[in-house]
Amino acid sequence: MAAFAEETEAKNQLGHISEGDASIEERERQNRELKEGLHPLKHKFVFWYTRRTPGTRTQTQTSYEDNIKKIIDFSTVEAFWVCYCHLAHPSSLPSPTDLHLFKDGIRPLWEDNANRSGGKWIIRFKKPISGRFWEDLVLALVGNQLDYGENICGAVLSVRFNEDILSVWNRNSSDHQAVMGLRDSIKRHLQLPNSYIMEYKPHNASLRDHSSYRNTWLRG
Q1: Do residues 128 and 90 make contact, with C-beta atoms less than 8 angstroms apart?
Q2: An example of a Gene Ontology BP annotation on this entry (predicted)?
């Protein structure tokens, strides 16, 4: 925890949180937390939880929204570790389940204004190892360590019967440089073996075929 806090504080002091890329509300929140002796994150985040109905492939937008439950929000290193240490490990979650980590103000829905023009990178894992990669991804996202961070909306862990799936959502699927740069950054931070294939799918394609992970458009 100390090392994570020191790294976050160092980034802040180097201007990682600047006048140009943080809203007035965010800066006020960060200044308030610094005065309280805490270590503010660049963004406030929310954990969400979805328990899907087994055997149901398609859901209406209304029914899906009704199933999304907010767990907790946090905006400091200290608050993150308090809530993260109490979350269930991926191996103990029932199938099918989705655990979402998104920036505050962005709902984990394809139709959300921040998501509707974007898409997601998808990585499939065998169950025994998915928990470690999910934790590494969460730390990278919360610590603002991924390239093109302003283009990132959030991440999802999807627990399924035969596999677990990690996905990272971004704002703009048509920005090829940002999409491919995010892919490379994910690979570096997760230290993915060369045998792992990443797939990309725009959200508008998911809206058309009513599927999160089938019929992906790009592999790399």
Answers
A1: no
A2: translational initiation
Report d(CA 9, CA 16) in Å as an integer.
10
Q: Could you say which DSSP state residue 87 is in?
A: S
Alpha helices in the chain (DSSP H): 2-13, 24-35, 61-67, 77-84, 127-142, 176-190, 203-209
Does residue 127 lie within any of the structural domains? yes
* Whether pLDDT at 189 is above 80: yes
Q: How confident is the model at residue 14 (pLDDT cuts 50, 70, 90)?
A: very low
Return the residue matching tokens 């939880």.
49
Domain at 64, CATH number = 3.30.760.10
Alpha carbon 74 to chain centroid distance? Answer: 14
Nearest C-alpha neighbor of 2 from the set 62, 95, 76, 77: 77
| Domain of residue 199, residue span | 44-219
Size of the chain in residues? 220
181 vs 183: CA distance, rounded Å? 5
- Domain count along the chain: 1
